[in-house]
Specification:
Alpha-Beta Plaits; binds iron/sulfur cluster; mainly alpha; 3 domains
Length: 389
């Protein structure tokens, strides 16, 4: 645990960022996998009377791709006239989609992806058991977060991450009108995790989320007070409105212009420093420094998975619940919660409970053990519970 010295806190934060960037550059150099090459839209040569085989030759397309695109079962069928498969425009868009899917497939390190999902399953299960059984001391929290950052970010890389599954799926569909099935499976798994266990994947498994949280916790004392400056809890109505508008703008720009406005700002790229432009590097540095004072700014203000996950939290099987029979109304939980969630729960705010990142801070500070994650319906506090003392 870092001591309460402002200078030491800054040194720890800077050292962490430098270590993450340096080790990630090394790791992605060692086994980063093939560089992602987005398929470039190209003008296809299609002339009247051309066969499928001639079309393939003229455009340097492999037979396997042609057979898949035109649903052909044998090489002999490649002699069919290309006009049988549609108008030139339809054929161009069909082939562009197939090329985009092939580029997606070729740009992935499948060994790493399989390892990452297996590691998520193991790590999150162990952390879940650990958190359910005992209180988390601040120093153990720091070690758990460090483990997550280094395992899922530095070692296993920027891709995949919960956010990319949504962002990249929308971008691919908006530009090429195709869906990459492995990405949809990953997205379904992440969303299923939210339904099962709240934003547990964000809280403990997302490489960008845990890095922001680690920086925030380094700037927190054992009593959850800031070592430097102030911890600012931005009003949820502001952050969520901004996040929703940002998401809407992202979708609009993808469909109208084919541009991914998140890519240049993507904080996951810190784990693949070679892919970062200067502006992206400056943005991420600012985001991480802001994380010292604001809890998970990317998650609350920008992340598409953050938004979708927040909506799904409403039907999650494990949510923060308070037993008001034993609660002594001290409100230590709301004060310690790094976000505005616990305050909203205690305020009887039914509709707009902000994102809860399953950090367990509220449970750990409760002197009467009245807080737990449970599948039970969240009860409202009795009306005069916090005023009757
Ligand atoms: S909300 Fe935060 S933790 Fe969750 S996917 Fe987005 S960046 Fe990761
Ligand atoms: S302190 Fe409690 S309510 Fe607040 S984010 Fe953490 S787990 Fe959720």
């Amino acid at each position: 645990m870092v001591k309460d010295s402002p200078l030491l806190t800054i040194v720890h934060v800077l050292a962490l960022i430098a270590l993450v960037i340096g080790a990630s550059a090394l790791s992605s150099g060692l086994w980063g996998g093939p560089p992602e090459k987005p398929s470039k839209s190209r003008q296809l040569v299609i002339t009247e009377g051309m066969t499928a085989a001639q079309f393939g030759e003229a455009n340097q397309l492999p037979d396997a791709l042609l057979k898949e695109a035109f649903n052909l079962s044998s090489d002999a069928e490649l002699d069919k006239k290309i006009a049988e498969f549609g108008a030139p425009r339809e054929i161009s868009s069909l082939i562009a989609g197939k090329l985009a899917l092939a580029a997606e497939h070729a740009g992935k390190n499948w060994l790493k992806i399989r390892l990452k999902f297996a590691s998520w399953l193991l790590f999150l299960s162990l952390v879940f058991i650990y958190l359910s059984r005992r209180k988390l001391t601040p120093s153990r929290r720091i070690w758990l977060l460090c483990s997550s950052v280094f395992l899922f970010g530095v070692v296993l890389g920027a891709d995949p991450g919960p956010m990319g599954t949504i962002k990249d799926a929308i971008h691919l569909y908006g530009t090429e009108h195709v869906i990459f099935p492995p990405r949809m499976i990953a997205l379904a798994l992440f969303l299923a995790l939210v339904v099962l266990a709240n934003k547990y994947i964000c809280g403990w498994g997302c490489q960008a989320g845990t890095l922001q949280e680690l920086v925030y916790r380094i700037n927190s004392t054992e009593k959850q007070e800031p070592r430097i400056g102030r911890h600012v809890k931005l009003p949820f109505v502001v952050t969520n409105t901004f996040r929703t508008l940002f998401f809407g703008t992202f979708v609009l720009v993808v469909f109208l212009r084919g541009t991914d406005i998140i890519a240049p700002l993507d904080p996951f790229k810190i784990y693949n420093p070679a892919s970062l432009a200067l502006s992206g590097g400056i943005f991420i540095a600012a985001l991480l420094l802001l994380s010292m004072f604001v809890y998970r700014p990317w998650c609350h203000l920008f992340c598409p998975f953050g938004l979708v996950g927040w909506l799904l939290e409403k039907v999650s099987r494990a949510k923060i619940t308070v037993d008001y029979q034993t609660c002594i109304a001290c409100q230590k939980c709301a004060a310690a919660c790094p976000s505005t969630v616990m305050g909203a729960i205690l305020r009887r705010d039914k509709q707009t409970i902000p994102d809860c990142f399953a950090c367990y801070t509220c449970r750990d500070v409760c002197p009467t053990g009245s807080i737990q994650f449970s599948k039970n319906k969240r009860a409202l506090p009795p009306k005069d519970h916090f005023t009757k003392k």
